[in-house]
Amino acid sequence: MNSDYYDYDALLKRAVSQLPEEVFKDVRFEVPHADSFVEGNRTMVKNFVDISKVIRREPQFFAKYVLKELGTAGDVEGPRLILQGKFGNYIINSKIKKFVDEYVLCPECGKPDTKIIKEGRIHFLKCMACGAMKPIKLI
To answer: Which domain does 129 fall in, by range?
Structure first.
């Protein structure tokens, strides 16, 4: 047999070469802040769809979470989210950050390269960079 077959350094190099490129990227992920304003008794988040594209989640799924956390009704209309009630930027941004922590960032490596997949009756947050899977509860 070839002695390189069991050589530790050769095995390590081979294993590292098979890892996806995302593992080696050290790019800082930043969620854009909500651009919101109050109009009458409603709050509008102007860049809601843009935020959902950055975090790579469906706007309806993301909106459902924000609405539940704020305890209000609302709807996605075009590129914005309309909330019933008056909410400040701080509270909206804190709910967005909480969503990102629970449903976007990998619990193992902290990267945002994740997908929500379903296996059987259980939904998982699967990291495409490191391969970790975490069970999550849907909204």
So the answer is: 105-138
Q: Cβ distance 74 to 39 under 8 Å? A: no
Closest CA to 116 of 78, 67, 61, 54: 61
Sequence-distant (6+) residues with CB within 8 A of 75 are 63, 81, 82
One domain, residues 69 and 82: yes
User: What does the pLDDT look like over 26-79, one tens digit per residue?
Assistant: 666 788 899 999 999 999 999 999 999 999 999 999 999 999 999 999 999 999
- Three-state DSSP class for residue 101: helix
- pTM for the model stands at 0.78
89 and 49 share one domain: yes
The residue assigned the tokens 């080696």 is 24
